[in-house]
Automatic annotation (TrEMBL):
Residues 14-243 form the Pyridoxamine kinase/Phosphomethylpyrimidine kinase domain. GO terms for biological process: thiamine biosynthetic process; thiamine diphosphate biosynthetic process. The lineage of its organism: Bacteria, Pseudomonadati, Pseudomonadota, Alphaproteobacteria, Sphingomonadales. It holds the Pfam family Phos_pyr_kin. Keywords: Kinase, Transferase. Its EC number is 2.7.1.49. It comes from Croceibacterium soli. This is hydroxymethylpyrimidine kinase. Pathway: Cofactor biosynthesis; thiamine diphosphate biosynthesis.
Length: 249
C-alpha cells in the first residue's frame, strides 16, 4: 500500500467541530491523508459564535511541531488560527527552511464574526506569508494585509478567496509574482452552513500538495471538496452551521 501523505495542521481547536483543527482532521482524512496537529488555542464555540478562548504557550506549540516533524515527519503543513504574535513567531522559527509545501490561512475573524487575531498577531503574519507556498485570505483578510499588490510584493502565491463577497458567483483568484492570474468561478451555494470553509479549503490544498499535485490542481481539487461538503451540510446548529465533510466521496 502507498503511504498516505503526512499533513501537519497548526491551528486552534473548535469545540463544536465545524472549523479549526477538527475541520482540518476531517478534511485530511477524507482526502486520504494522515493528519497530525499542533494546537495553538482551545475555544468554547458553536454555530452562534465564540464564547471563550484559551491560547496555549508559544513554547508548547513549538514542542508539538517538533514532536511531529522529528519522528513521523510531514509532506505538507497547514497553518490556521495562531492566537498570539508569540505563537506566530514560534511557528515561523520552527518551520524556517523546512522545505515543504506550507499553506497559510491568515485567520483573523471567525465565520460568526468573532475576532481571533489582534493587531500584533496580524503584524507577525509577515514572516509566515514569506515562508508559505500559498496564503489564502478572504476579502476582509486580504484588505487587512494590504490588498493584492502587497501580497505580490511579498513574493509568494496568494489565493484571494471570494466566498464572503457579494453576488451569485464565487470567484477565487490565484495571484503569483510573474504569472497571469488564474480565476475559478462557480455558482454560489446558498446556505447558512459555512462554518469552517476557510479551514477546510486550506487543509484540502495542503493535503493535495502533500500528494504531489501541482498548485493549480491542488486548488481545483480543494474547491471541489469544499463545494461538496457545503452541499452535504447536515443542518446542525442555529447559526453558521458546519459542513458535511463526512459525506464527501
Amino acid at each position: 500500500m502507498t503511504a498516505p501523505p503526512r499533513i501537519l495542521a497548526i491551528a486552534g481547536s473548535d469545540s463544536s467541530g465545524g472549523a479549526g483543527i477538527q475541520a482540518d482532521i476531517k478534511t485530511v482524512t477524507m482526502l486520504g491523508g494522515y493528519a497530525m496537529t499542533a494546537i495553538t488555542a482551545v475555544t468554547a464555540q458553536n454555530t452562534r459564535g465564540v464564547q471563550a478562548v484559551e491560547v496555549l504557550p508559544a513554547r508548547f506549540v513549538a514542542a508539538q511541531i517538533d514532536s511531529c516533524l522529528s519522528d513521523i515527519g510531514a509532506d505538507a503543513v497547514k497553518i490556521g488560527m495562531l492566537g498570539s504574535a508569540e505563537i506566530a513567531h514560534a511557528v515561523a522559527d520552527t518551520l524556517e527552511g523546512i522545505g515543504l509545501p506550507i499553506v497559510f490561512d491568515p485567520v483573523m475573524v471567525a465565520t460568526s464574526g468573532s475576532v481571533l487575531a489582534d493587531a500584533a498577531t496580524i503584524a507577525a503574519f509577515e514572516r509566515l506569508m514569506r515562508l508559505a507556498t500559498l496564503t489564502t485570505p478572504n476579502v476582509a483578510e486580504l484588505a487587512a494585509l494590504g490588498r493584492p499588490e502587497a501580497m505580490l510584493a511579498r513574493g509568494s502565491a496568494c489565493l484571494a478567496k471570494g466566498g464572503d463577497a457579494e453576488g451569485p458567483e464565487v470567484e477565487d483568484r490565484l495571484l503569483r509574482p510573474g504569472h497571469e492570474d488564474i480565476v475559478w468561478s462557480s455558482p454560489r451555494i446558498e446556505t447558512r452552513h459555512t462554518h469552517g470553509t476557510g479551514c477546510t479549503l486550506s487543509s484540502a490544498i495542503a493535503t493535495l500538495l502533500g500528494k504531489g499535485l501541482p498548485l493549480e490542481e491542488a486548488i481545483e481539487g480543494a474547491r471541489q471538496f469544499v463545494r461538496s461538503a457545503l452541499a452535504a451540510a447536515p443542518g446542525f446548529g442555529e447559526g453558521h452551521g458546519p459542513m458535511g465533510h463526512h459525506a464527501v466521496r
